[in-house]
C-alpha cells in the first residue's frame, strides 16, 4: 500500500508541475512520459494478477517482465527530470545575480 500512496503523491506533484505555464516543452514531455510509465507499471501489476487468475502463467510472466522494464524506465526518467529541474534552478540563480 505505501507504494500506491507514494505513486499518488508523485502524480499530484507531477500534475502541479504540468499545470505551471512557465514550464518548457522538454520538461512537459519528461513529466508526461513519467506519468504514463507510472500508470502503465500499475496496470501491468493488475494484468499480471488477472493472467495468473485466468490460468495463463506465460502471460503473467510477460506482464511481470514488462513491469520490471517499466521500473527501469521510471528510474531513468526520474534521473532526467532531476537533471532538467537542476538546470532550471541553476538558470534561475544566474538570472538573479
Approximate strand percentage? under 5%
Q: Spans of 5+ residues with little confidence (pLDDT < 50)? A: none
Tally of distinct domains? 1
Indicate the overall shape.
elongated
Q: What is the rounded distance between the termini?
A: 45 Å
Radius of gyration: 17 Å
Q: Structural class, from secondary structure content? A: mainly alpha
User: What's the total helix number?
Assistant: 3
Main beta sheet, described?
none
How do the SSEs run, as a string of H and E?
HHH
The share of residues in helices is over 70%
Total count of strands: 0
What is the arithmetic mean of pLDDT?
82
The oligomerization state is single chain
Tell me what the structure shows.
- Helix 1 (2-19) packs antiparallel against helix 2 and helix 2 packs antiparallel against helix 3 (57-96).
- The model has no long low-confidence stretch (mean pLDDT 82).
- The protein is 90% helix and 0% strand.
- It contains 3 helices and no strands.
- It has 97 residues and is mainly alpha-helical.
- 8% of the residues are buried.
- The chain has one domain (2-96).
Chain-wise SSE layout:
Blueprint: H1 2-19, H2 25-53, H3 57-96
Q: What does this entry show, briefly?
A:
The protein is an all-alpha fold and 97 residues long. It has one domain (2-96). The protein has helices spanning 2-19, 25-53, 57-96.
Main features:
97 residues; mainly alpha; 3 helices
